[in-house]
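Forwarding these from the shared drive since the link keeps breaking.
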Amino acid sequence: MKIAIAGTGYVGLVTGSCFAEMGTDVTCIDVDSKKIKNLKNGIIPIFEPGLDEIVERNTRAGRLHFSTSIVDCINDIEVLFIAVGTPPQEDGSADLQHVLNVAKTIGQNLEKYILVVTKSTVPVGTSQKVQQTIDYELKIRNKHIEFDVASNPEFLKEGDAVNDFLKPDRIVVGVNSERAKKLMTKLYNPFMINNFRMIFMNIASAEMTKYAANSMLATRISFMNDIANLCDLLGANVNMVRQGIGSDLRIGSKFLYSGCGYGGSCFPKDIKALIQTAKEHGYNMQILNAVEYVNEEQKKIVFKKLDKHFNGNLAGKTIAVWGLSFKPQTDDVREATSIETIKMLIDAKCKVNVYDFAAMQEVKSIFGDKINYAENMMDATKDADALLLITEWKEFRLPNWEQIKTQMKTPVIIDGRNIYNREQLTEMGFSYYGIGQ
């Protein structure tokens, strides 16, 4: 079976390489010729555990190819996935120009049946626009060629995307024909051998499912952050509260961890897009507006705790920041709490030392020489007046606290992810601040 993936970003490259891993012949396409050249030479544009091995293995096996042209393969494949970017516009709505450009190219060059699948996160109604765009281009050419459009939203976690794709807990597919359903079943069957977990629905429902899922997860995070902030005021411990409510089977324990806000390319963008979609249809998403507000305020919480400790006298202080990516196991700093925190530290005239396992270059492209980039986690804490934990990389879990205390000016820790033992650190002489503890 031959397929193509338009877009070699996070979703497109993971999708293409994992399909190839299961024996499908895949061509990954991108207009960025430099990126395609690098991929052909084994250079992966993103940090994602396990992805480089799969790309290398399947490229070598001849199942995974890279190209800059949809035209070259459009009439030699059965399925084309659209996995291009849909960045937010100023009003928060998703920019669909890249999606519709792919649809336009398909309509201008199609000569035989094809199934076009939207894999990008797109607002409800986008697949219909894709179909209309292809129909329009075919009409201009006076061609009558059958094709189908489907929606297949991704539910990949950055940092564990390869495993998520190869061992999915469910696959959501929106179709409007039996032919499209059979093709998608055939394509995903290798992933479903042990347990068939494909959920078929109409296309609009599939598009909405993606936004609804991310919105629910983001809501749980913001809810717990709101509870954590109240715990700080009332003397309660959010970790105990989390255990108490998470044991309720109606609630469950996942996504109940408080911290310093969510980020990344999905939750912030998708919530903004859904809020905007609702506005366009005359509806106000009151809960999601609150979720977004709570999260934006939560990104300031680490700085606020730091500022309060030093009574507003931060000018000239040296602050160490551990963790820059929006979550562990990725170099993605889009909407990351670290970026907002660093901006506030710079505005407060602090000297900032940062360290992250994977995201140093990404942050350097934003701040340049305005901050210092430590060679390792210990180096970042030298002569520091405080240490801020923003991203909970595994290497930060059990540091040498004795050495850290010795080399810091003042032993202050702001734990933005609640991963440290408060009692242990206070006994050692640290001033410790968690979230909601």
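-- next protein --
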Amino acid sequence: MVRLVSDQSSKPFQTIFSWIIAIVTAGYMLPWAIAATRGKSNTGTIFWINLLLGWSIIGWIVALIMSLNSHQIVGIQE
């Protein structure tokens, strides 16, 4: 059986913390919370883009799109 291995990782503390921050900031940090929940490997990048450029709306949309993109395939396991 062939299995694809992705870059997805689980970080429960970061996920809980990001959702608390997203609620406190009235959704401003929502892209970061989504990325943390999905286990994206570029969660840190999404956090910084959202924090520093999210106010411009375009930066927020870019962060949201990054958080919703599919995971990258890093290998095949047989």
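Helices lie at 12-24, 30-38, 43-53, 58-68. The mean pLDDT is 92.

- D.
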